[in-house]
Amino acid sequence: MKSSAEVPAPGSPEPAPASGPLVDVRDLSVVFRKRRTLAAPRIVRAVNDISFHIDQGETFGLVGESGSGKSTTGRALLKLVPAAAGSVTVAGHDVTRLRGKALRTARRSMQMVFQDPYSSLDPSSTVAASIAEPLIVHEKLSGRAARERVHELIEMVGLRASYADRYPYEFSGGQRQRLAIARAIALNPGFVVCDEAVSALDVSTQNQVINLLERLRAEFGLTYLFIAHDLAIVRHISHRVGVMYLGRIVETGPAERVYTAPAHPYTRALLSAIPDPRRKSERIVLEGDLPDPARPPVGCPFQTRCGHVMDICRQRVPEPTVVEGGGEVSCHLQTSGPTLAGAPLSALPKGPGPAA
């Protein structure tokens, strides 16, 4: 079997099979409450009333700055953190309502690849033991059968079966992430959350791991939620993209449409940060940091950093608007002031402000 390192550098992903949603998220909210001794509890709405879906065999990219709620969303989809409101339906089962044995059974078909492959593998166990654990617990495989399956999985991710008896510290970061992927697909899941799965790797290794994920998706019909802050990587692997800001999804749509014709000022600013010597326009620098999620601004969450802010932005949260070319955007520019009505931001007349 050829290593994924021999696969050409990634481009646009192959089209996902035409089928209905495997994952359907409706009005999902996640709230964290931190108790304090002398003050009122600090309440943080990390995810705020978001909705999206992922079709069978599709890769949905979720992007945004650190602290935007991306990783919390991924964990909520697998019920690793509880939802305060809303529903998450995976393969027809509302994960938010599952308990005990039913949840444990459902998790066989939902797996996660974490950002740090070293901490997600037991440093005191061989990689064979780590990968075999779900096979023994869920499939009740014997030691010999589990070992044969482990060898098959290790080769499937482009490594040698003889590596099975090594410990995690004996591998590079890219090799450890391949092993983490091998464990994630051990139970033949239908849905995999990749939480910053390549952000800790160098550029060449990122390409190899992305190629591996794409090959596995094509071979086994996997469905991915791919979480990242690097928009260039997300463009290569994703069929559709969602952009998060301060716990809300502000724009969704086909990857090419979002990247070539962004409809939200935040999306446009993120895209301007991608290094591109061919770009003629200047980078859009957002002033300030993300607002405190425990005290979000009234109205549009992006109003404190937007170069197009209007009075209505300080009063109401914008409603989703259908975008030309597919997807939705939540921005008052689409419905008030210079009404874009689903057109990209490039349709705005030139004027002052960092997003002009």
Characterize this entry briefly.
With 356 residues, the chain is α/β, with parallel strands linked by helices. It contains 9 helices and 12 strands. Helix 3 packs across helix 4 and helix 5 runs parallel beside helix 6.
Which helices and strands occur, and which strands form pairs?
Elements lengths: L20 E14 L7 E14 L3 E5 L6 H8 L7 E6 L2 E2 L5 H7 L3 E4 L13 H12 L4 H14 L16 H12 L6 E5 L7 H18 L2 E5 L3 H7 L2 E6 L2 E7 H6 L4 H8 L47 E3 L5 E3 L26
Parallel strand pairs: 3-8, 3-9, 6-7, 7-8
Antiparallel strand pairs: 1-2, 1-4, 4-5, 9-10, 10-12, 11-12
What would your notes on this structure say?
Belongs to the ABC transporter superfamily. This protein is 26% helix and 21% strand. The chain has an eight-stranded mixed beta sheet with strand order 6-7-8-3-9-10-12-11, with helices on both faces. Strands 2-1-4-5 form a four-stranded antiparallel beta sheet, with helices on one face. The protein folds into two domains: 21-238, Rossmann fold (3-Layer(aba) Sandwich); 262-347, no CATH class. It contains nine helices and twelve strands. α3 (127-138) crosses α4 (143-156) and α3 (127-138) runs parallel beside α5.
Features:
alpha/beta, 356 residues, 26% helix, 9 helices, 2 domains, eight-stranded mixed beta sheet, Rossmann fold
Mean pLDDT: 88
CATH level-two architecture of the largest domain? 3-Layer(aba) Sandwich
- Spatial order of strands in the largest sheet: 6-7-8-3-9-10-12-11
- Major sheet summary line: 8 strands, mixed
Residues in helix, %: 25-40%
The beta-strand count equals: 12
Sheet-strand content, in percent, reads 15-25%
Tally of helical runs: 9
